[in-house]
Amino acid sequence: MAKKIITAIIGFGKAARVFHAPVILTLPEFRITKVVERHREESRKYIPGVEVVREADVLLKDDDIDLVVITTPNDTHFDLAGRALKAGKHVVVDKPFTTTSAHAAELNRLASRMNRTITCYQNRRWDGDFMTVKKLVESGSLGRIVAFESRFDRFRKERRRDAWREKPGEGSGVLFDLGPHLIDQALVLFGAPEMVTADIRVQRDDAVTDDSFELILHYDRLKVTLKAGMLVRAETPRFLLHGTSGSFIKYGMDPQENALIEGRSPNEPDWGAEPEHMWGKLDTEIDGMHYSGRVETIPGDYRGYYQNVADAIQGRSDPMVRPEDMELTIRIIERAFQSSEEKRTISI
Predict the structure, then answer these.
(1) How far apart are the two ends of the chain, measured CA to CA in Å?
(2) pTM of the predicted model as reported, rounded to 2 decimal places
C-alpha cells in the first residue's frame, strides 16, 4: 500500500472547512497534519490531531508534507503556490487558480521544472447535474449541440461587507468567484472557444465589485452562454441545452454543497443523489422515436477530484484539471473584462 500523502491546508475559512477538509478526510490516501490559521484554531474542531500554525513558512519548511492546499483570498494564490512548489510540495489551489493568465502560465512552468503536480479545485466537474449533462452530450442524445446555457444565480440584496470577495481588489467580484466553475465546465464539454462577448455589471445599490455577468463563448455553430447574478429571485434553469435532435432543461443546484454546510460526510449512503423532482427533463428523438421525460441525475461526488489528485501524485494518472485548462480559464476571464469594458467581442 502506498504511503499516505501528508497534507497541509493554508487558510481555514468556508472553502477549507466546507469543500476541502471534509472531502480529504474521507479518503484513506491522505492525512492532514497541519493547518495555517492566523488568529483562530477552528480546524481543531474538524480535523482530529491537526497542528495549527500561524505562518505558511512553518509548514513549507516541513519536509514530511507532500501536498499543500491553498484556500486563501484570490490575490494570494500565485505567491503561496509558487513558494510551495519551490519548497518541493505538490499543490492544490482553490479556484480561481490565479488572477492573471501570466501568473497561471508561470506556475505551470514552475511545477513542470520541479516535477510536482499543481491543479485547481474545479470540484464542480463532479456535480451530479454536470456529470449528467456531460453524458447526454457525449451520447449524442440531443444531436449536435447548438446552444448551451449554464448559470449560477442567487438573491442577495446587499453585499456582505466583511467578505473580501465583495470588496475592491485583485480577483474580487462574482466573475472571479463563480466564473471559473462555469467556464471550466464549458471547456470540459466543448473545448476552447474562439471568441468571447461579455456584459459584466455592478447591479446592487451598495455593491463595489461586479455582481452580475453574462458571457457568450463563441464556437463554430455553437453558442455557449454563462450567467451569474445576485439579484435573481425567481428560479432559473441551472442548465439548458438545445441540439439538432432535442432539448434538455435542469433546475436546482447539486445537493453536495448544502450537505457539506450541514456538516454531513461524503461517506454517507446515497451521497450526492438528487430527489426525483429535481431531475432534468429531456425532450428529444431517439432512433426515430419521440421521447419526453425525466432523466435521473447521476449522483455527484466531490471525492472524485481528490481521488484524482492522489492518483496523480502517486503516478497512476495525470491530473484531470490540466495546466492548460487552468490557464485558459483565467485568460477567458481577462478577455471577458476587456470585452465588457470595450463593448465588443474579443478573440481568445
Answers:
(1) 45
(2) 0.96
